[in-house]
């Protein structure tokens, strides 16, 4: 059941991922992604009946060791974080983005 | 001035004041200056920061017993954050990013007295097997400058192989420490998943990523591993298992260890010279007291397709954060290749300026990152999730089960790290599938969460070959012991000084 990805499929996936592709990339990816998925098709042939979807690959992870007490701990100061932003209003303490409404 | 070769000697020289930390640091910086124009192992050399740090170590001293890496220069892969030092993950999207915090491994190294000299080149977001997918140009293999050092931790490995630094940190999602270590003739360890904190590691495949040591010897790798292993409350997948003194495990022999070799995996695609060096390495391990048994890993041949489904699904989620809003590069404005056209064909609404910004910004991803985001997005999309992602996770569990069964009969599993020696730059970039096959023997350890080490076992056509040993969870000490035993029985590998 290998998938053949058409240029339209590639553009649809690119939209889901908010990726801008050139027409050349669309053509190239249609070909390469089809080849990669065809290669991955052998995974589909494996009998996995009765196998649960667990934390495969995480030794000693059952139960997951992710819990902790819900204690308040300090995080990075807001100014330090905003320092990294391409655009921010420090006084208001917000990230700035291009206008969304009324554009 | 040249610096001693081994970590323990460097530390001893600084402790005894025979050399200062500044002397050592300057020697490393000189060597980087001398060679890195040709090799391009580093994306950023933090000369000022490193010297200031070395000066402080010389001035303040401190209790040497608490500083196991006192004065030791270390290079850090550029997908690991160090506060105040540029960290780009070799991507245009993080070209000007200066992290406000340090990765746990970086803080631990500094607490151990190490001097971080710079950030090393890698494939963009650690996605690749050749370091050619760096947005800032490839790294060259110190053994042959027209060849790739492997990847994705190619810069870290090349810096160690060219003796610019004795130690470096890499990260390994599908072989990114071990494959380049093999191709450049150094030791590289991928720890058990959860053994080393991922806090401050720029995420690629979160269920697979581990940070690990790169060194010229197993003993040096153990010294670095000692410093970084252990539980970290900032990483919820970090293991709360006891850490041992790894150097103490190096007995110089492999007595009593049962090593399994899945021979059927060697039948296809392994270069004869690699195979020969691998057999030579096995013979040396027998001489060291190990026994060799044939084993089967029936699902291991599915590792590559499973890996590229699982890793790319995780990658597409992890890379969704690069949107130009909170940090990293932002691109606004319109361009000729406007994806609005593609969207309107799908009947989507016209793009607002914010959405445009997302597209413009994310156009900065390189070809390989885009390819992986595309595959990952597809396999997670409605209608395909069960067929691809869920199925791959189930087969992943079967691969893990194969190892569990093998470990009831043997203590370790050995394979060549890479089926080939270092390949020429440009040779594999046109064919992503061929590039992915570079990792055919390394990805299973990531899928199963197991520790694995690559140690040099000889040369083929004058290029290094690595032998990979995979062990039970949290048995890194045994891997380091075997690597050390092999090292003592094989000729020391050094790149020809002429090529440097």
Structure characterization notes:
The complex is a heterodimer of chains A (103) and B (500). Chain A is flat, with a radius of gyration of 23 Å. The mean pLDDT of chain A is 85. With 103 residues, chain A is mainly alpha-helical. Chain A has helices spanning 7-16, 23-44, 78-83; strands at 88-89, 94-95. In chain A, helix 1 (7-16) packs across helix 2. Chain A starts with 6 loop residues before the first helix and ends in an 8-residue tail after the last strand. Chain A has three helices and two strands; from the N terminus they run αααββ. In chain A, strands 1-2 form a two-stranded antiparallel sheet. Helices cover 37% and strands 4% of the residues of chain A. By secondary structure, chain B is an alpha/beta fold. Chain B has a domain at 7-260 and 412-499: Amidase signature (AS) domain (Amidase signature (AS) enzymes). In chain B, a hairpin with a 2-residue loop joins strand 10 and strand 11. The longest helix of chain B has 22 residues, at 385-406.
């Amino acid at each position: 059941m290998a998938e053949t990805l058409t240029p339209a499929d590639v553009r649809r996936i690119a939209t889901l991922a908010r990726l801008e592709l050139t027409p050349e990339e669309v053509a190239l990816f249609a070909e390469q992604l089809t080849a990669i998925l065809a290669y991955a098709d052998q995974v589909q042939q494996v009998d996995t009946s009765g196998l649960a979807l667990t934390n495969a690959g995480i030794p000693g992870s059952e139960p997951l060791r992710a819990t902790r007490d819900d204690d308040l701990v300090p995080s990075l100061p807001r100014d330090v974080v905003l320092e990294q932003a391409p655009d921010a209003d420090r006084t208001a303490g917000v990230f700035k983005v291009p206008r969304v409404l009324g554009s | 001035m040249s610096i001693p070769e081994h970590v323990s000697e460097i530390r001893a020289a600084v402790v005894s004041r025979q050399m200062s930390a500044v002397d050592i640091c300057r020697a490393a910086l000189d060597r980087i200056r001398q060679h890195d124009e040709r090799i391009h192992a580093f994306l950023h050399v933090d000369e000022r920061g490193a010297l200031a740090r070395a000066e402080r170590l010389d001035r303040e001293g401190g209790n040497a017993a608490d500083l196991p890496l006192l004065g030791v220069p270390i290079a850090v892969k550029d997908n690991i954050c160090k506060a105040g030092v540029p960290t780009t993950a070799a991507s245009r999207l993080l070209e000007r990013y200066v992290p406000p915090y340090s990765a746990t491994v970086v803080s631990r190294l500094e607490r151990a007295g190490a001097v971080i000299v710079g950030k090393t080149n890698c494939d963009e977001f650690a996605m690749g097997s050749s370091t050619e997918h760096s947005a800032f140009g490839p790294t060259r293999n110190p053994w042959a400058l027209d060849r790739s050092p492997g990847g994705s931790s190619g810069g870290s490995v090349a810096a160690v192989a060219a003796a610019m630094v004795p130690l470096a940190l890499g990260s390994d999602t599908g072989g990114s420490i071990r494959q380049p270590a093999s191709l450049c003739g150094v030791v590289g360890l991928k720890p058990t998943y959860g053994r080393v904190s991922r806090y401050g590691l720029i995420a690629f495949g979160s269920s697979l990523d581990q940070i690990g040591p790169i060194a010229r010897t197993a003993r040096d790798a153990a010294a670095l591993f000692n410093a970084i292993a252990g539980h970290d409350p900032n990483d919820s997948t970090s293991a709360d298992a006891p850490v041992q003194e790894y150097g103490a495990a190096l007995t110089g022999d492999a007595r009593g260890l049962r090593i399994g070799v899945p021979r059927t995996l060697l039948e296809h695609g392994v270069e004869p010279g690699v195979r020969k060096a691998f057999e030579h390495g096995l013979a040396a391990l027998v001489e060291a007291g190990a026994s060799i048994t044939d084993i089967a890993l029936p699902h291991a041949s599915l590792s590559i397709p499973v890996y590229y489904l699982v890793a790319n699904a995780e990658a597409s989620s992890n890379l969704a954060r690069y949107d130009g809003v909170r940090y990293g590069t932002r691109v606004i404005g319109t361009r000729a290749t406007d994806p609005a056209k593609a969207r309107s064909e799908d009947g989507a609404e016209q793009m607002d300026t914010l959405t445009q910004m997302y597209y413009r910004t994310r156009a900065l991803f390189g070809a390989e990152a885009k390819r992986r985001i595309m595959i990952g997005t597809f396999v997670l999309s409605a209608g395909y999730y069960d067929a691809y992602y869920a199925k791959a996770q189930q087969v992943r569990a079967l691969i893990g089960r194969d190892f569990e069964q093998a470990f009831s009969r043997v203590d370790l599993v050995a394979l060549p790290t890479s089926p080939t020696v270092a390949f020429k730059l440009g040779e594999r970039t046109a064919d992503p599938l061929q590039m992915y096959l570079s990792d055919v023997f390394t990805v299973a350890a990531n899928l199963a969460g197991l520790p694995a080490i690559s140690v040099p076992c000889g040369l083929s056509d004058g290029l290094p070959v690595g032998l990979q040993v995979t062990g039970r969870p949290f048995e890194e000490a045994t891997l380091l012991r075997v690597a050390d035993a092999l090292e003592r029985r094989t000729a020391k590998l050094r790149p020809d000084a002429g090529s440097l």
